[in-house]
């Protein structure tokens, strides 16, 4: 299947590139090896149909049929997270793994509604993640940004209440962005106009993004830009179907946060070689390469870079351009960008 080799030298080069991650769900870094011990530690009863051990759970993770099939496991998985220490342990494990992959900057998603609806307060969640992020900055030299996502399968008024509860964290600069995730097709962007407006009006400096064009068509992307005023698109795969949209993304240098291994595991494409990466390069649409839910999809950030190389075999100059686009599309100061480039 591999058209190009990613030899030792090339792997070293990809590791050394100044990589920035813009699309990783912290709850999606929870693998079976941590899930079962946390369930035991917190006395959480997993549903009777849930696989009983690491091996059978990993096997089930290799058989996702689509986004919803994955999400059903993702929400059960996060139910073992209860204490602030659980959230810290989870995020810290991610930062150390990503650091070993040569990551310099991490913009991480989290889903507070998936915890609050189980009786875990947003304060417990944010404090645990914030502590891990601070430690990552200090001990690993990774700059970090925390992006709160709203679950689009829940009512928009629930999203508004979540934004209200997060106000102190936006004010303090602990949370830096707003995103939108979960099942895409049944819940189009227009439903969340008021939520995005609430954050925009109160915190104009906060970064806005949304999952769009993963399973939904290019109109989900266009509507996210028009109605939610996002400046970034998560996934954006289906943008390739609309040339006017590609030109618009290029003109505004709107970053797509691409997740190659995720797209294969959730059957968005059969193989990474089918992703319209060359089209984005030809149109000048910037994209970054990300892991999405690495514990579920079988690879962290470097694995995603390596997979893209085995399918597209880019030269060093193209790889440097991809990495520079990732740095420039990050929600960081110009000074930090300079440090990374
Ligand atoms: N939540 C976690 N990963 C997701 C994805 N790839 N798409 C939508 N929602 C998600
Ligand atoms: Zn995602």
TrEMBL record:
Which is a GO BP term held by this UniProt record?
A: nucleotide metabolic process
Q: Which GO terms describe its molecular function?
A: adenine deaminase activity; zinc ion binding
Q: Where is the signal peptide?
A: none
Q: Which GO terms describe its cellular component?
A: cytosol; nucleus
- Site, Important for catalytic activity: residue positions: 235
Q: How is the cofactor bound?
A: Binds 1 zinc ion per subunit.
This enzyme's EC code(s): 3.5.4.2
Which residues carry out catalysis?
Answer: 214
Query: What is this enzyme's class at the first EC digit?
Result: hydrolase
Q: Look up the record and name the cofactor or cofactors this protein needs.
A: Zn(2+)
Which positions does UniProt annotate for Zn(2+) binding?
Answer: 23, 25, 211, 292
Q: Where is the Adenosine deaminase domain?
A: 18-341
Which UniProt key words apply to this protein? Answer: Cytoplasm, Hydrolase, Metal-binding, Nucleotide metabolism, Nucleus, Zinc
- The residues that the entry says bind substrate are 293
Instruction: State the source organism's domain of life.
Output: Eukaryota
Q: Which subcellular locations apply to this protein? A: Cytoplasm; Nucleus
Catalyzed reactions per annotation: adenine + H2O + H(+) = hypoxanthine + NH4(+)
Q: Which HAMAP family match?
A: Adenine_deaminase (MF_01962)
Family from the record: Belongs to the metallo-dependent hydrolases superfamily. Adenosine and AMP deaminases family. Adenine deaminase type 2 subfamily.
What is the stated purpose of this protein? Catalyzes the hydrolytic deamination of adenine to hypoxanthine. Plays an important role in the purine salvage pathway and in nitrogen catabolism.
The protein in question is named Adenine deaminase
Origin organism of this chain?
A: Kuraishia capsulata CBS 1993
Upper lineage is:
Eukaryota, Fungi, Dikarya, Ascomycota, Saccharomycotina
């Amino acid at each position: 299947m591999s058209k190009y080799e990613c030899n030792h030298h090339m792997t070293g080069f990809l590791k050394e590139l100044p990589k920035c991650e813009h699309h990783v769900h912290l709850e999606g870094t929870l693998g079976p090896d941590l899930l079962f011990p946390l369930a035991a530690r917190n006395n959480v009863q997993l549903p009777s149909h849930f696989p009983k051990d690491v091996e059978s759970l990993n096997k089930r993770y290799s058989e996702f049929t689509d986004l919803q099939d994955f999400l059903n496991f993702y929400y059960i998985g996060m139910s073992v997270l209860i204490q602030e220490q659980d959230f810290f342990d989870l995020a810290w494990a991610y930062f150390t793994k990503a650091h070993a992959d040569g990551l310099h900057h991490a913009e991480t998603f989290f889903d507070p509604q998936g915890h609050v609806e189980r009786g875990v307060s947003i304060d417990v969640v944010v404090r645990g993640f914030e502590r891990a992020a601070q430690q990552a900055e200090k001990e690993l030299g990774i700059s970090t940004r925390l992006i709160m996502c709203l679950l689009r399968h829940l009512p928009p008024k629930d999203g508004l209440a979540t934004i209200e509860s997060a106000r102190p964290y936006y004010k303090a600069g602990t949370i830096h962005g707003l995103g939108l995730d979960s099942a895409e097709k049944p819940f189009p962007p227009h439903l969340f106009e008021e939520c995005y407006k609430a954050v925009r009006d109160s915190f104009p400096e906060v970064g806005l993004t949304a999952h769009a064009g993963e399973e939904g068509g290019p109109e989900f992307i266009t509507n996210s830009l028009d109605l939610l005023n996002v400046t970034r698109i998560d996934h954006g795969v289906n943008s390739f179907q609309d040339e006017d949209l590609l030109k618009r993304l290029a003109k505004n240098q709107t970053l797509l946060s691409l997740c190659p291994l995720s797209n294969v595991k959730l059957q968005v494409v059969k193989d990474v070689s089918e992703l319209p990466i060359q089209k984005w390069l030809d149109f000048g649409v910037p994209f970054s390469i990300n892991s999405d839910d690495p514990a579920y999809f079988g690879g962290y950030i470097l694995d995603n870079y390596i997979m893209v190389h085995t399918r597209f075999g880019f030269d060093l100059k193209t790889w440097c351009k991809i990495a520079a686009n990732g740095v420039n599309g990050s929600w960081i100061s110009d000074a930090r960008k300079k440090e990374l480039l």
